[in-house]
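Lab notebook, bench 4. Still working through the backlog of constructs that have no structural model yet. Next entry is a single chain of 167 residues. Request: give me the structure tokens for it.
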Amino acid sequence: MTHLPENQRTRTITWQDPLPVLQQGRELSGLQYMQAVKSGQLPPPPMMELMGVWISEVNEERIVFAVEPAEYHYNPLGVVHGGLAATLLDSAMGCAVHVALPANVSYTTLELKVNLVRALTRSTGVVYGEGKVLHLGGRIATAEGRVFDANGKLYAHGTTTCLIMRP
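Model written out:
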């Protein structure tokens, strides 16, 4: 019998097969799809389950994701890995573009720029990643985002360029 060290922790992740959801999602506008994930009508993507992220708000103007930094987000320096803020920004900015797209039109991130301005820790509390579209063209979209806490304190900000893929 194997014994775990006294300070060992475990975490179990459960998710649904994303491929059937992808098929359903193609029939919805980006806004309808994100609203369905937020309401629980559609399951979230596995990445959201893995990171502990959820949709806090979604409308035509912006989308806001949320996450509560935890020990399992930590890097070897004793703070939350910058990848959590980068993931939150990539999700928020990309999904802001998605929200602006009609059914059967998708996107992919071409470029992501992230500025980390303050460390996150498990004592930070819930942080929010907000994304807003800056430009929506026929093939290219740009968006901006920021990560902030409940008091509005900024932890990261960024921009993205997305390729719009039409059938």
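Notes after review: The domain at 18-165 is CATH 3.10.129.10 (Thiol Ester Dehydrase; Chain A). The radius of gyration is 17 Å. Flag for follow-up if needed.
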